[in-house]
Model the fold of this input.
Amino acid sequence: MYASNGYGGQEILGAARVEGPIVVVEGMRGVGYDEVVEIVDVQGRVRRGRVLEVGEEAAVIEVFAGTTGLSIEDTHVRFEGHPMRIPVSLEMLGRTFDGLGVPIDGGPPPLAERWEDINGQPINPTARLYPRDVIQTGISALDGMNSLVMGQKLPIFSGSGLPHNQLAAQIVRQATILSSDKETQSFAIVFAAMGIKHDVADYFRESFTSSGALLRVAMFLNLADDPPIERLITPRAALTLAEFLAFEKGLHVLVVLTDMTNYCEALRQISNIRGEVPSRKGYPGYLYSDLASLYERTGRIKGSAGSITQLPILTMPNDDITHPVPDLTGYITEGQTVLSRELFQQGIYPPVSVLPSLSRLMKDGIGEGRTRADHAHLAAQLYAAYAHVQDVRSLASVIGEEELTSVDQDYLAFGRAFEHRFIGQSPTENRSIEETLNIGWQMLSLLPREELTRVSEAEIERYYKKA
Done:
């Protein structure tokens, strides 16, 4: 049965089919893709959903809270006539919301400065400003060799049990923008959690509170026992607020998305229920474009003082970096920070594996007038030396350390010191970039001078001190 409603849309009584979180209705007209839907069950309880697919005779709807208890005959489906929108305002900082943007911290709904469609568009490439200002995270493995630049999207590739949450919380606490005039600025934080456990959410909340950052953090939480379908909305709601804060209010915003693997699992679940042809490992063929629709809502825009920097976190199933989620993420983003289980087992924090890690924008944010003139050469030399350490370790495993040349033994000493003193640092230690570069030169001083082929003679004369 069709009827008009007071929402500017229409209302249907009865569903054609209910399957998992999917409801199929027939008999409507003029329904749009991504339109918001309210579904009222026999008891009068209202659940929200959105239109996934439309045709001349039917619409496929995903219900965020699931379809348990819905009756095919007695279900009322109300189409609201517009895509999903959330209220956005500056006062949302310091607040906690569920995955759909509804306050769950006991406070009143925020006073909306405007209502925004959560399905934002990627930034037009012609309107982008090229990222050049380095973000000082206080973590040497990042600042020294994989620098994060304001407006960049740099994911953390982790595995089950690795301290990616601790690393992300430390970055949020310590991150400051180091602009060309050497002035530092702090961030507004938008934190979006998808499918994480309660203790992880509590950890982030306590970390933000203890550091005094909570008043500049807006948290969107979809926990492990919340409906999986909400996970498809959570990052979009978070990015909608981030865009408002950055491009309307002129703030520098750091967006943390964890865990993107849970988001992709929810996307795969919906795809399978809809009967779509699966691609790699059962994920839909449009996984790349769906992830890009999130990641590309990051950057700087001409004429706006604000920026969005994105730090997605994903756990690689079985530590497999070729899994579709990290594989496609690496193609879309400007690099990745990879955590190493081997370093973690040695008690090194943060266990950043510098060899597969990469920051494609680092070269444009460092150097004279930004960090230090020797930064690029020093990072290249540390990378080359540590790569050679892996070859020497492989040789030592065959012939034994005592059979190595004196130079190779110097490389082994460099490798151990590099892992424990340069990569490794306290979770509360906040190193300046100057301190990080000085520690890097201390590591290179463990090697013979003639092995330093990536740095200039002037830099060697100034910074090299043979240990």
User: Anything to note?
Assistant: Residues 1-7 have pLDDT under 50 and may be disordered. Residues 375-463 form one domain.
